[in-house]
Write a sequence for this structure.
């Protein structure tokens, strides 16, 4: 299944006002990998994601999804292969009922009505949201919205899932549920996030962006333990790997202490 | 329209009512819209000096409300809130038209009062019918009904978008209003310059949001066309609904039912 | 300034519906020609923004009263006339459906008054003319002020004309104008200032928003527009004028509408049914108190409306009208009883279902 490969080569992009966003990004993600894309605000994560589904066209370099380079003529195919889950579910859920929203993609693919229905119900079942199908999106809780927006993408049977901050604005339980849901998927996953603990749980590989460049790309366990690297990229170790917690995992007070200590060290 | 929070509560309430399930909820929305339009046309076609004539028509909105389990008190409250413009125009009638029209014993009633009563009757009828329609149909059904009745898609689709994002933007606006109120003391900070910059920021965020929505649509194969709503078939019961009501309205318009009733009663007494 | 169903006659409502329907179809077609599909979500979201903005109040300096934004002109500047018109139409539809602001039949009037005038008249012929002839905040302020004042004056004038032609209200043209126009002058000034400051804010922070919005529409001038505007104005005007005779000469009205708008609009239930009804009613006028509601003989209609007020009163028929009122009260009670009956019946049925 060469479909599942994402290859970015020497990708460069700067915004119309001249602000450079990407300065030659390179990576290659293969089938079934679960990759975290991390970096401080303004590091270029969102711009990179916008290239992965062809919303932005590379000014230099190339993006390939499987065997297909992204060009105007391959857009439809690429967008069917790459499912993108947005940070704000309100942007993604624009139809009047949950069902219509999940069916939006398959309908646009021109599938026969029976197939549309089947795919929609399957996708809803996968995220455990069948009971929500007739509800209007604004009446869902944050966790439900997130689950449904993932279903809107799953109904197109993508090979690759691209997610922007999937755990933001969720309560701890909803976050945990989402993570176990994502862990079940065997799609290739690219997750842009600041939630380092989720990275620890879900991703085997981490790519760090800084100033529009890849500054690190490697196994999650190596990168997440490299404090200097994380610090210099505006990031932090996952909570569970921070020393005080690690030494005394049950101590909440220690954990808080670790946070304070972290701030003091940053000041120095 | 009241305060921002209560306005959204209102839309939410009507929306919740429309998601119930009852025999009138299940009637095809196209026929409900047509029936209601015909109802309004009939109601306002009564002469302006005939306040009693249209009263029997009340049976239509009332039936919708009862079968559709829409609380009377809620509709009544909305009728009161929405009346200012109608009321202020109608109030001129008794002032301007003092020519006596009928005598109720010693009291003579002016033509203006009669036509005032007639306006208010029509107001209650038309507004309660529209509210009952939306409360037992829901906006998205009405939109797909309109689309299938030939209303341009450009209009119906963005009616849907508007409705969807009223809730999102309304909440944003409500948050901003609260933040403004918390830091405005003695009326300062409620002026136009603050307002402009508030709405300005909201506007820019809205433009960005529209861009993201467009992107989300593109990601799922949007090609300029939105296909929405499964085609529902008109059943026999739907047609009976339309035919029955329209026949009743027509009869009530042709025969002065209240006059018969009144005369019959007069003879009995 | 929302027109209500209760204040208009079926003829006026029908004519304005026809005009608005024509404009909607025209705008939708224009939009399709523009081929800018980004506008689809943008319009909806902007509509929601205007809706939300209308609920935020601000104090008007020096008066202590509060104002809010109408939005027609702002939308036209940001989206271009056809898209702005459709957006206004949908805002007004939501208001009619959910807030009982205006009615379903009066929707045509409202969309025309608050959508057509700012989007198709005030924006292209006033705002654009003034704003495009130079740069600067002052010029934008002048353009926005002029456009929104004129747009609102026209809208208020529309309300007055529609009301007077409907002959439901007793307000004479002159008095009504004297009340409505100054109020809307004040509203127009506020609207203009707010619109100008919003445009100023956007052009200083994100000028590309304005450029992108006006982009394709600006390049291509509307060529058929004047023709269309003329057509609609004539339709609206004639429809309005003819409504003077609507109650007495329905066939004439039908015929005129058919001639102006073609066959399609005739199918709209308002005018057609109303006319048909009146005709049947004339033939079946056997009720003794029939003349209580229909006092004017057919042929006299024209001379009567010319003669003016003294003939406008219906003849006095005290006995029958009292019985009419009595009957009205009774039918109210009866309707209540029917409703009660349905409720009990339903309760029993659902009880049986549960049991």
């Amino acid at each position: 299944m060469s479909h599942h490969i994402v290859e970015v080569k020497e990708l460069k992009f700067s915004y119309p006002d001249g602000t450079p966003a990407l300065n030659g990004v390179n990576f290659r993600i293969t089938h079934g990998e679960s990759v975290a894309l991390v970096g401080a605000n303004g590091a270029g994560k969102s711009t990179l994601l916008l290239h992965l589904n062809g919303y932005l066209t590379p000014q230099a370099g190339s993006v390939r999804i499987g065997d297909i380079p992204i060009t105007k003529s391959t857009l439809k195919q690429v967008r069917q292969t790459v499912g993108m889950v947005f940070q704000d579910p309100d942007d993604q859920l624009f139809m009047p009922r949950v069902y219509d929203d999940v069916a939006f993609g398959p309908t646009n693919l021109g599938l026969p009505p029976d197939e549309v229905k089947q795919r929609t119900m399957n996708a809803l079942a996968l995220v455990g949201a069948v009971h929500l199908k007739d509800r209007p999106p604004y009446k869902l809780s944050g966790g439900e919205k997130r689950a449904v927006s993932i279903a809107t993408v799953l109904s197109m049977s993508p090979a690759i899932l691209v997610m922007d901050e999937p755990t933001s604005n969720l309560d701890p339980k909803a976050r945990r549920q989402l993570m176990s849901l994502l862990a079940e998927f065997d799609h290739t996953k690219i997750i842009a996030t600041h939630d380092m603990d989720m990275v620890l749980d879900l991703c085997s590989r981490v790519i760090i962006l800084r100033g529009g460049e890849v500054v690190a790309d490697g196994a999650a366990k190596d990168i997440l333990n490299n404090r200097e690297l994380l610090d210099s990229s505006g990031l932090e170790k996952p909570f569970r790997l921070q020393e005080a917690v690690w030494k005394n995992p049950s101590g909440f007070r220690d954990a808080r202490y670790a946070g304070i200590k972290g701030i003091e060290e940053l000041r120095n | 329209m009241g305060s921002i929070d209560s306005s959204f509560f209102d839309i939410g309430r009507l929306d919740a009512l429309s998601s119930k399930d009852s025999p009138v909820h299940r009637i095809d929305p196209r026929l409900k819209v047509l029936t209601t339009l015909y109802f309004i046309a009939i109601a306002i076609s009564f002469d302006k000096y005939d306040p009693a004539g249209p009263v029997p028509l009340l049976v239509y909105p009332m039936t919708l409300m009862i079968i559709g389990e829409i609380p009377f008190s809620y509709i009544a409250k909305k009728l009161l809130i929405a009346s200012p413009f109608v009321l202020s125009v109608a109030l001129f009638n008794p002032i301007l038209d003092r020519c006596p029209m009928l005598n109720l014993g010693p009291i003579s009633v002016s033509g203006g009062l009669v036509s005032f009563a007639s306006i208010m009757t029509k107001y209650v009828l038309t507004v309660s019918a529209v509210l009952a329609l939306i409360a037992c149909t829901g906006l998205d059904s009405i939109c797909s009904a309109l689309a299938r009745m030939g209303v341009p898609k450009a209009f119906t689709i963005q009616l849907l978008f508007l409705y969807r994002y009223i809730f999102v933007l309304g909440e944003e606006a409500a948050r901003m209003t609260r933040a403004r109120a918390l830091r405005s003391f003695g009326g300062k900070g409620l002026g136009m310059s603050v307002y402009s910059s508030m709405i300005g920021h909201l506007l820019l965020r809205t433009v960005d949001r529209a861009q993201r929505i467009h992107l989300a649509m593109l990601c799922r194969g949007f090609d300029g066309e939105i296909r929405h709503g499964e085609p529902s078939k008109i059943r026999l019961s739907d047609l009976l609904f339309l035919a029955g009501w329209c026949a009743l309205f027509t009869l009530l318009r042709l025969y002065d039912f209240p006059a018969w009733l009144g005369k019959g009663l007069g003879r009995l007494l | 300034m929302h027109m209500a169903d209760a204040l208009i006659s079926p003829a006026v409502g029908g004519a304005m519906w026809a005009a608005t329907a024509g404009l909607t179809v025209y705008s939708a077609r224009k939009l399709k020609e523009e081929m800018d599909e980004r506008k689809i979500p943008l319009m909806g979201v902007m509509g929601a923004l205007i809706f939300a903005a209308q609920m935020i109040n601000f104090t008007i300096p020096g008066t202590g009263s509060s104002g809010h934004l109408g939005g027609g002109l702002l939308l036209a500047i940001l989206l271009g006339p056809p898209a702005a018109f459709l957006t206004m139409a949908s805002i007004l539809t939501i208001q009619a459906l959910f807030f009982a602001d205006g009615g379903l039949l009066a929707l045509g009037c409202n969309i025309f008054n608050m959508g057509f005038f700012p989007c198709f008249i005030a924006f292209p012929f006033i705002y654009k003319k003034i704003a495009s002839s130079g740069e600067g905040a002052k010029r934008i302020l002048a353009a926005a002020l002029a456009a929104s004042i004129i747009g609102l004056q026209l809208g208020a004038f529309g309300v007055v004309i529609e009301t007077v032609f409907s002959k439901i209200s007793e307000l004479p043209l002159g008095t009504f104008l004297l009340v409505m126009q100054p109020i809307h002058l004040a509203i127009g000034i506020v609207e203009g200032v707010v619109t100008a400051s919003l445009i100023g804010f956007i052009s200083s922070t994100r000028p590309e928003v304005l450029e992108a919005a006006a982009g394709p529409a600006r390049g291509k001038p509307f060529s058929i527009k004047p023709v269309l505007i003329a057509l609609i104005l004539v339709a609206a005007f004639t429809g309005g004028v003819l409504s003077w005779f609507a109650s007495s000469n329905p066939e004439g009205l039908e015929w005129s509408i058919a001639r102006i708008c073609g066959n399609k609009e005739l199918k709209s239930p308002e005018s057609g049914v109303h006319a048909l009804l009146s005709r049947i009613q004339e033939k079946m006028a056997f009720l003794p108190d029939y003349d209580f509601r229909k006092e004017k003989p057919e042929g006299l209609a024209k001379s009567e409306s010319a003669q003016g007020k003294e003939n406008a009163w219906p003849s006095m028929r005290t006995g029958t009208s009292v019985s009419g009122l009595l009957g009205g009260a009774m039918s109210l009670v009866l309707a209540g009883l029917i409703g009660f009956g349905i409720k009990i019946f339903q309760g029993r049925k659902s009880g049986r279902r549960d049991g």
Observations:
- Residues 318-354 of chain C form the longest helix (37 residues).
